Amino acid sequence: MAIPARPALPALDVSPVVRSAILAVAWILGTLALLVLIGLVLTQTEEFFTWSGYGQQIVSGMAQGAIFASLALALVLIYRTTDILNFAQGEMAMFTTFIAWSLMNHMPYWPAFALTLVIAFVGGAAIERVIIRPVEHRPDIVIVIVTIGLLIALNGLAPWIWGPEVKAFETPFSNGTTEIAGVVIAYQDLGVLGVTLATVLLLWAFFRFTTLGLVMRAVANSQDASRLVGVRVGLMLALGWGLAAVLGAIAGMMAAPTQFLDANLMLIILIYAFAAAVLGGIDSPLGAVVGGLILGVLINILGTYVDFIGGELRLPAAFVVLLVVLLIRPQGLFGHRVVRRV
Amino acid sequence: MPLLELKDVHARYGPIRALHGVSLTVDEGEVVAILGANGAGKTTTLRSISSVTRTSGEIRFGGKGIARRSPEYVARLGVAHVPEGRGLFPELTVWDNLRMGAVGPGRGGQFREDAKRIVGYFPWIERRREQAAGTLSGGEQQMLALGRALVSRPKLLMLDEPSLGLAPTVVRELFATVRRLNEEDGLTVLVVEQNATIALDVASRAYVLEVGKVAVEGTSDELRRHEGVRKSYLGY
Question: What global pTM score does this model have?
């Protein structure tokens, strides 16, 4: 006797856009659930735990994380287009922040901010043309050494130009706080979050909806194929470096008001940005952003609530978590193993 | 004046010489085939035209010297090269791959119209426009690569082993499309093939390469009657 066929499951045939939306909602809900869970654990272990204080830590962690995310996104952008890990990304950001500081002595904040982004774009593209292009086809290690050289050069050049003393950096956001659902939030944190997330959204729209963005994605996917359809690959790589430098400049200008401005402004942030990029999957722009936010929140919670970690052990603690994630998922949270058929 | 002219072109990969003085011409509106065994220099000939491989000798396209320029320069002059392995962007969607054919100078405006035509040839493209190109089957990839090349409105289409790894019915469909494009739109095609039988069916003329040199050339009829070609490449 024939075995009756199992009734076919209704096909979950949704467009990739809808699927991405569902995934995004699932991610957000999952993260919220995880945060609530951690909060519930903390109510048991922490004597002076308050939900509003916890919320405050999360929001300021996100603001911090948004800065990591910008720089991580810059790293991923360059990694995807050129397969280069740009160790000088942080110092490029620091240098442009110094330029912003000089400009702000002569003009209001936002014009100086905009002008800095233009300078960063041109400077980033110029660095690709002049410093990276000549070693483009050399072994990876040569390129890595060149970017480290650039890091050291910029780190020395900044104090030589602007002097070694630490500088106070202007913030466009007011000093006060606001209260949302019982959680006290600094305008500074909100402002940083707003500026960086708006940048990320703009960048996403650029890559997703413009022809130039499409061409840059194509170059990131295959330089040889791009050349054969007539793309000026060299020009696109320079554009990519310019955009990455803009992201870095934003990260620098957002970080400087709370950290003070000196030549080492971005050193630790760069390490966190690398960690964020690897956590998210080094080839995934979305991963870089999510990785940055997760890392920011994580180090804030760990630093505040785990006594033996405190302020000093944040960095190693973050790396322990990173290590554990990578042991479970070596390609990072959002990295792909590309499926292809020949 | 021929559309494409190669005069005594030499090419090498490091110490290995791949072309020893290839000369050939392609006139406007022709389908020309390059036949030959593995390693005879067929692919290198196309790569030399596209400036992917460094060469010495003269290559002229529409009267302009194009030897030792860059692949993007040659592509922008109107040479669409579908390379071995199809040269798609595996991580981009089918539709984005198609759009990449129209990013050259002054081609953006006609994309809608051109894409509609391509979808007419290969209707599955419309249904699977959001799928990553790397997940298509070999035959679909070849059709998409051809579609992308056509969207660029090329003056010369160069196909490198389009039949490689494809089922016979797919190969026939592909060559039928090429023939149709040539007959209806006057598209000029230079096609490299190991499958000499099907290539000679579509081409009006052909060159047979042996160890980096043109060994035999002639019209398709002449080559079919040529004893050496028949024995070595047509198998009867």
Answer: 0.86
